[in-house]
Design brief:
Strand order of the largest sheet: 2-1-5
Protein name: ATP-binding protein
CATH topology: SH3 type barrels
Helix content: 10-25%
Oligomer: single chain
CATH class: Mainly Beta
Strand content: 35-45%
Number of helices: 1
Order of helices and strands: EEHEEE
Number of strands: 5
GO molecular function: ATP binding
Keywords: ATP-binding, Nucleotide-binding
Shape: globular
Pfam families: DUF3107
Distance between the termini: 28 Å
Largest sheet: 3 strands, antiparallel
Length: 75
């Protein structure tokens, strides 16, 4: 699953491929926004941790990742 995170004052969004389900990501976002920690922590497919301060979040887009086509296709 692909997660795009918009961060205030950053020229580019953070994009990560996550093994978490959309529901798990949504719950993590909701918990971070309502919690006292002040950070959103997500994990990518390789186990790397992405930590973003909640007060700097602009938006979060959760989407099913689609397989990328490689090579040429005949129409």
């Amino acid at each position: 699953m692909e997660v795009k995170i918009g961060v205030q004052f950053a020229p580019r969004e953070l994009v990560l491929e996550s093994a978490q389900s959309p529901t798990e990501v949504e719950q993590a976002v909701a918990q971070a926004l309502s919690g006292r920690d002040g950070v959103l922590t997500l994990f990518d497919e390789k186990g790397r941790r992405v930590i973003v301060p909640v007060d700097k979040l602009a938006y979060i887009e959760i989407a099913e990742s689609s397989p990328r086509a490689v090579g040429f296709t005949a129409a």
